[in-house]
C-alpha cells in the first residue's frame, strides 16, 4: 500500500498559501498540498515556507502545489482525501473527526500547557514515542497546536463565581472540563457529569450529580454514594 503524507494539527488551526519560487528547470516531482482554511494566516506561512524549503533542498527537483481554503479538500474530507490520493499532503485538524485521533485530541484537554510551543513539542514527542495507530496510514511530517484557549467576555471574569449565569461556547466538537467549582459547571450546561474517586469514574450523571456532590462533599466514597 502506498503511504500518504499528512501534517496533523491538534486544535483547529488554519493555513494559507503563496506561490512557489520559479526554478530553472521543471521539477521531477510535483506534490499537492491541501488545507481547508483561508490564506495569509500562520499555518499558511508555514505551508509556503515548507514548500519553498523542500524545493530549495532538492535543488528544484521536488515542487509543491498548495491548495488552501478548501479548494481541493474540505476539513472533513482531509484525512480520507489524502488516503485516497486526492492530495499527496494534507494539513488537518482532529476536531473535525471526533473519535478518530484519540491521542492527538488529548492535546486539547486542560492539562496546563503554558503555550503552543510546549504543547506542540509534547504532542510531537508523544507521536514519536507511542506510534499511535491513528496515523498508521500516513507519514507524519509535523504536528502543532494553537495557543491555550482564553475566555473572551464583555464583563470581566476574575473568579468562577463571575461565570454564574453566563453561557460559554468552546471551539471543536467536544471538550472536557475538570473542576470542583459548581458555578463553572452550571455555566457550561454539560451533557455528561462524571465524579472521579482515586482516579476512577465513580459516578455518571447530568448536572444534578454536580449539584449533589457540591452539597454532600467531593470526598464522599463510593460506599456512601451507594448507600
Kindly describe this structure.
It is a single chain. With 227 residues, the chain is of the alpha/beta class. The protein has seven helices and seven strands, in the order ββαβαβααβαββαα. It folds into two domains: 4-145, 3-Layer(aba) Sandwich (D-Maltodextrin-Binding Protein, domain 2), CATH 3.40.190; 160-226, no CATH class. The radius of gyration is 22 Å and the shape is elongated. Helix 1 links the parallel strand 2 and strand 3. Strands 3-2-4-1-5 form a five-stranded parallel beta sheet. It has helices spanning 42-57, 78-83, 102-105, 116-130, 182-188, 207-216, 222-226; strands at 4-10, 29-35, 62-67, 89-92, 138-145, 193-197, 200-205. The longest helix is centred in the first third of the chain and has 16 residues, at 42-57.
Structural class: alpha/beta
Identify the quaternary structure here.
Answer: single chain
- What is the CATH-assigned architecture of the largest domain? 3-Layer(aba) Sandwich
Which homologous superfamily in CATH is the superfamily of the largest domain? Bacterial extracellular solute-binding protein, family 7
Describe, in short, the structure shown:
With 227 residues, this protein is of the alpha/beta class. 28% of the residues lie in helices and 19% in strands. The chain has 2 domains: 4-145, Bacterial extracellular solute-binding protein, family 7 (D-Maltodextrin-Binding Protein, domain 2); 160-226, no CATH class.
